[in-house]
Amino acid sequence: MANSPNLGKLSFKYLQPADLRRLTHMLFAPRRIIQGRYAGHFATNQRGQSVEFRDYREYLPGDDVSKIDWKVLGRSDKLFIKIFEHHSELTVHLLIDASASMGYRGSTNGRKDQLSKYDYACMMAASIAFLVMKQHDRFGFAISRDGLDKQVPAQCSMQHLMGILRRMERIRPGGSAGLAGALDDFNRQGTSRNLLVIFSDLWDDPDAVAKAMAARVHAGGEVVLFHVLHPDEIELPNVEHGLFIDSETGSRVRLQVREIRAEYQQKAREFIESWSRRCRGIGVDYFRVMMSQPYYQLLENYLANRASR
Q1: What is the 3-class SS of 266-287, one letter each residue?
Q2: 133 domain residue, yes or no
Q3: What is the predicted pLDDT for the residue at 38?
Q4: Hey, how many other C-beta atoms are within 10 angstroms of the C-beta on 233?
Q5: Helices (H) and strands (E) in the chain, counts
Q6: Which of 94-103, 106-115, 298-307 has the lowest mean pLDDT?
Q7: Do 122 and 100 meet the contact criterion of CB atoms below 8 Å apart?
Q8: Which region, left, alpha or beta, applies to residue 286 given φ > 0 means left and ψ of -120 to 50 means alpha?
């Protein structure tokens, strides 16, 4: 019997047991499958699975209880389910912007426990990875930091997920994203027909990024873009004046916030709307992520809307 993780110890910074319970009823699938010949996946949850037994793994919350091996339970007093050989129909690549701007935590007032944009993106990405694994599909991981970096090829196993979670925790945001270059590298790898999920604040070259995403969609792939933003980036912090520092260039400017707030908020709205329009125009599934809401609520809303489409 293969070694299986102890679910009581399955607690990582970006994926906690409570999160697993919230995610058990969700499903992550590409739109082309939902609209095509695999539409029945939502009803059966058995896509791509054959009758050839392969191995066991420990029971996860949300698994089909009919797959539990009750004889093993009687011998070991532990819940294990049977795993069968299958041909995965879906490969998901998770790409997280790990530039310096993604390290922003807001006006912390010295607190270290507030989530950064990178933390928030990792929580959403970890949740999607868990869902994809639970569906017996493959998932990979990479970051965009001065281009494509820390890439992990797609696999499907609990050990693979745990390895990605540990890698996420070791990464520290820094430098520039180089998101367009990262996307170009992905496109050259011959994975363009797979599903690419991007998490970024999009403080990057919009024309180059949009061109790279459009090339992937044109080649037959699908791109989902989670636009991760802190409320301060939309409204500005609730202060009268402050020193604003560009996290990537180090340039500084001192401003009277009250005098610029209204104009800044208008520019921020235009920034978001411009990305939404660009994505609609090239067939990218755009979703704005505001850190003022719990990440699991946003993810649940997104998946529900995606399924309904």
Answers
A1: HHHHHHHHHHHHHHHHHCCEEE
A2: yes
A3: 38
A4: 21
A5: 11, 10
A6: 106-115
A7: no
A8: beta
pLDDT at position 4: 39
**Residue 15 · residue 165 · CB < 8 Å:** yes
Residue in 77, 173, 69, 131 with CA at minimum distance from that of residue 300: 131
10 found inside a domain: no
What length is written for the chain? 309
For the cut 50, the answer to whether the pLDDT of residue 87 exceeds it is no
Output the DSSP codes for 293-306: S-HHHHHHHHHHHH
Write the single-letter amino acid at 102.
M
Domain with 164 in it? 91-308
The pLDDT value given to residue 61: 64
Q: What's the pLDDT score for residue 271?
A: 95
Which H or E run contains 52? strand 49-58
pLDDT bucket at 111, cuts 50 / 70 / 90: low
What tokens appear for 75 in the block?
């011998």
- Percent of the residues in the chain that have a pLDDT greater than 90, as a whole number: 47
Asked whether the beta carbons of 49 and 136 are under 8 A apart, the reply is: yes
Rg (CA), the chain: 21
> Residue 133 belongs to a domain with what CATH number?
3.40.50.410
Measure the CA–CA gap between 70 and 77, rounded to whole angstroms: 9
> What tokens were used for 276?
């939404």
Q: How many domains does the chain have?
A: 1
140 in a domain, yes or no?
yes
**Residue 56: strand pairing partners:** 82
- pLDDT tens digits, one per residue of 8-36: 456 789 998 888 888 878 888 766 543 33
**Assigned domain for 79 exists:** no
**Structural element, H or E, at residue 42:** helix 41-44
